[in-house]
Amino acid sequence: MPLSKSLTLRGYLVHEVLSDPASRAAAKAFILDGLAAGSLKPVIAATFPFERTVDARRFLESNEQLGKIVVTVSRTARRQTVTRSCGHPASSAKDEAGKNRV
Questions:
Q1: Is 87 left (phi over 0), alpha (psi -120 to 50) or beta?
Q2: Which long-range contacts (CB under 8 A, 24 or more apart) does 30-39 make?
Q3: Are 75 and 50 in contact (CB under 8 A)?
Q4: pTM above the 0.90 mark?
Q5: Which residues of the chain fall short of a pLDDT of 70?
Q6: 3-state secondary structure the chain
Q7: Which of 55, 80, 83, 92 could crosslink 100 through cysteines, CB 3.0-4.6 Å?
């Protein structure tokens, strides 16, 4: 089916936009303005709590979703993640030499 009214369809690669600072700034403004105005609304296929991340991954791999998959993180899980990523000895695993690893 031909496009009417001399319309042009143009796709963009993410690297085209992100590698150029002016394009990145324009894209960011377009997205933030669209979200603020309500003209851009993300489509959410499903929301999973952090504890069900495995289910979220399975749903993603099933290719059944139309839209984004959201994983929600509670304040407790966020604190634990930050503590682990900082290499806190109490929550870090140890490697074979007995040194902490994240």
A1: left
A2: none
A3: no
A4: no
A5: 1-4, 77-102
A6: CCCCCCCCCCCCCHHHHHHCHHHHHHHHHHHHHHHHHCCCCCCEEEEEEHHHHHHHHHHHHHCCCCCEEEEECCHHHHHHHHHHHCCCCCCCEECCCCCEEC
A7: 92
- Spatial CA neighbour of 74 closest among 89, 52, 96: 52
User: What single letter denotes the amino acid at residue 51?
Assistant: E
With beta carbons less than 8 A apart as the criterion, state whether 68 and 45 touch. yes
The reported pLDDT for the residue numbered 78 is 63
How many whole angstroms separate alpha carbon 5 and alpha carbon 66? 29
> What's residue 10's pLDDT?
78
Which structure tokens are listed for 92? Answer: 């870090």
* Contact (CB, 8 A) for 101 and 93: yes
Say how far apart CA 46 and CA 37 lie, in whole Å: 24
- Main-chain dihedrals φ then ψ at residue 55, nearest 5 degrees: -65, -40
